[in-house]
Amino acid sequence: MATAPNYGDFALKRFLGLNIEQVASGRARAQITIADEHRNPNGVVHGAVYFAMVDTAMGAATMSLLSDGRFCTSVEVQLRFIRPAANGVLIADISVVKMGRSVVHLEARVHDGDERLIATGGGTFAIVES
């Protein structure tokens, strides 16, 4: 898998150790190796980590379909937590469900390194001109 082209680097991505890969056009994969900074006081991954991971990967999947001079922004992202994770890796697989002229609908499935489903989600992104 190739790293998503031109998706950029930013402080939160570096802090989380978030790796974004482009799987195919309209698809992306994000991966985080769980560390102390990802855990909440209960010892499991904080929901905000999942959100940042899924939201960023949804942006990468959307950007893979856009022509130069067009960008995307989150309109809404929702997550459903299936089971907690405390160790190992988290992998989010993202796919575009439908792309219109101004709105993109996406879905997410987050699993651990043993392929156990951890969370699912959906999102809507707006397409904007630069």
Protein architecture, described:
This protein has 130 residues and is an alpha+beta fold. The chain has one domain (2-129): Thiol Ester Dehydrase, Chain A (Roll). 18% of the residues lie in helices and 47% in strands. The chain is built from 2 helices and 7 strands. The protein has helices at 11-16, 47-63; strands at residues 2-3, 19-24, 27-33, 70-81, 89-99, 103-112, 117-129. Strands 1-2-3-5-6-7-4 form a 7-stranded antiparallel beta sheet, covered by helices on one side. β2 and β3 (27-33) form a beta hairpin. The longest helix is centred in the middle third of the chain and has 17 residues, at 47-63. The chain is globular. It starts with a strand and ends with a strand. The model is unreliable at 1-5 (pLDDT under 50).
Summed up:
The protein has 130 residues and is of the alpha+beta class. The chain contains 2 helices and 7 strands. Residues 1-5 have low confidence and may be disordered.
Number of helices: 2
Number of strand elements: 7
Lateral strand order in the biggest sheet: 1-2-3-5-6-7-4
Taking all Cα atoms into account, the compactness measure Rg is 14 Å
Return the CATH class. Alpha Beta
Along the chain, the helix and strand elements come as: EHEEHEEEE
The amount of beta strand, in percent, is over 45%
